[in-house]
Each structure stands twice: as structure tokens, then as C-alpha cells.
């Protein structure tokens, strides 16, 4: 899902080796939110038989991501 305020989440679950003694569920996904510092945080994660792994990235949000000078150069 994705909300109007930029929050979002997505997950995909996969069953590996179904019907065997080595059957396990692996979940891969992310969630995203904007913190009080106005940075957007995205946490990518994977969970499976080896445990839970997560990696967080942070980037600045806002309307002026591209400077006006750079934008003019793209337009021509």
C-alpha cells in the first residue's frame, strides 16, 4: 500500500521446498515513512531461515529536489 503522506509498505512471501522437511517461508519487502526531521526512511528487509536482515536508507524529501537551474537545463 501507499498513503498520501508518503508512507508505504510492500511484502512478498515465498514458500521454498514445499512439502519437504526443508520447507520454509521467506518474506522480502520494505516499509517507508517520513520522520520528524523531514527525511524519508526506507527499510528493506528479508526474513527466512537464517533470520531477519534489514537495511535502512534515508533521503531528503520535499518539492525542490531538483534545483531550478538544473531543471532549466533539462528543458533546454
TrEMBL record:
One Gene Ontology MF term: structural constituent of cuticle
InterPro entries linked: Insect_cuticle
Q: Say which domain of life the source belongs to.
A: Eukaryota
Q: What is this protein called?
A: Uncharacterized protein
Q: Which organism is it from?
A: Phlebotomus papatasi
Amino acid at each position: 500500500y501507499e498513503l498520501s503522506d508518503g508512507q508505504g509498505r510492500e511484502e512478498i512471501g515465498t514458500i521454498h521446498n514445499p512439502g519437504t522437511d526443508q520447507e520454509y517461508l521467506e518474506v522480502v519487502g520494505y516499509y517507508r515513512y517520513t520522520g520528524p526531521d523531514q527525511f524519508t526512511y526506507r527499510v528493506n528487509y528479508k526474513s527466512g531461515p537464517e533470520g531477519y536482515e534489514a537495511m535502512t536508507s534515508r533521503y531528503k524529501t520535499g518539492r525542490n529536489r531538483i534545483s531550478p537551474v538544473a531543471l532549466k537545463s533539462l528543458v533546454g
